[in-house]
Specification:
Blueprint lengths: L3 E6 L2 E6 L10 H16 L4 E5 L6 E3 L20 H11 L4 E5 L2 E3 L1 H8 L2 E4 L4 E3 L2 H4 L5 H10 L2 H10 L3 E2 H7 L4 E2 L5 H13 L3 H15 L6 H15 L2 H11 L10
Parallel strand pairs: 2-3, 3-5, 4-6, 5-7, 6-8, 7-10
Antiparallel strand pairs: 1-2, 8-9
Helix pairs in contact: 1-2, 2-3
The structure holds ligand LCV.
Length: 259
């Protein structure tokens, strides 16, 4: 299917991100192909899905396709934008979506990992959360994904430094469920999926939906929401947002002004 490969092994759906020449950057097309694969598995009531990249890649996904980030004055991460649609599709899939990670994971793809239900990685994995490098304000639902999974100080360090977190540290802080040797990654992940497949899908489906609802049960007042939207607009209207994209495309370090 376009930029992804799909297969079903013993009732486990496998989606392989397969646009490696673009480092699996989450372009509109790649996102649509992943969602299409999830919809296809959902129709067949496939109980468990594995989201992976091809063997041997250095980069699992380079995150949001920078070339598709909107020009300034437009929210880059609003409700119907591709990354947000993808994250909701994973959250709403009927059964567990397991991220199987070999290689580095950047930005929006890091949020995708934090949205998957379970994360299995090998020693080549690393995870970088890059809005502060991209002059992007990020958004409330994305930040909540990290707060639900990590101690808030760890989540803040990831956002404030934008530095990659190693596989070993990712295991320590809880980004990943299991760190396994590269040659055992697929068999370990398939074994875990097979165990889940011996349980009641009906029960798991309802339990997953309760986790989703509770993980979003985070009160925020309309006034605070509107203030956050105003603050976010200051960022994506800023010099820093425009400079980050320009610097990336010109392959040079960005020079931020904080305005
Ligand atoms: C488009 C790319 C990309 C890319 N998009 O290879 O989370 S937020 O808010 O930040 C959100 C907005 C977001 O997700 O932003 C994107 C965050 N991603 C990153 O910061 C990763 C950016 N990429 C890199 O740092 C490097 O490309 C890595 C370390 C992933 C790989 O480095 P390597 O030296 O192996 P190149 O950098 O040479 O990249 C190879 C080609 O892929 C393009 C890049 O522009 C280059 O294109 P050309 O061959 O045309 O020069 N590319 C890389 N990442 N996210 N295009």
């Amino acid at each position: 299917m376009g930029l992804v490969q799909t297969e079903i092994l013993d009732k486990v759906g496998i989606i392989t991100l397969d646009n490696t020449k673009k480092l699996n950057a989450l372009s509109e097309q790649l996102v649509d192909d992943i969602i299409g694969a999830l919809d296809c598995f959902q129709e067949q009531k496939i109980p468990v899905v594995i989201l992976r990249a091809p063997d041997g890649v250095r980069v699992w996904s380079a995150g949001h396709d920078v070339k598709e980030l909107p020009p300034k004055m437009r929210d880059p991460l609003s409700y119907y934008d591709s990354l947000e649609r993808l994250l909701r599709a994973v959250e709403q899939y009927l059964g567990p979506v397991i991220a199987m990670v070999h290689g580095s994971v950047w930005g929006g793809a890091c949020d995708l990992i934090m949205t998957c239900d379970i994360v299995i990685a090998d020693e080549t994995a690393k995870f970088a959360m890059t809005p502060a490098k991209m002059g992007v304000p990020y958004n409330l639902t994305g930040i909540l994904h990290f707060m639900n999974r990590l101690p808030i100080n760890i989540a803040k360090e990831m956002f404030f430094t934008a530095d990659p977190v190693s596989a070993e540290r990712a295991l320590q802080v809880g980004i990943i469920n299991h760190l396994v040797p590269e040659k055992e990654l697929l068999s370990f992940t398939l074994d875990l999926a097979a165990t889940i497949n011996t349980r009641s899908l009906l029960s798991i489906e309802v339990i997953k939906e309760q986790f989703r609802i509770l993980s979003k049960a985070f009160p925020i007042s309309p006034a605070d929401f509107e203030r956050v939207q105003g603050l976010r607009r200051k960022v994506y209207d800023s010099h820093d947002y425009e400079e980050a994209i320009t610097a990336f495309l010109e392959k040079r370090p960005a020079h931020f002004k904080g305005e």
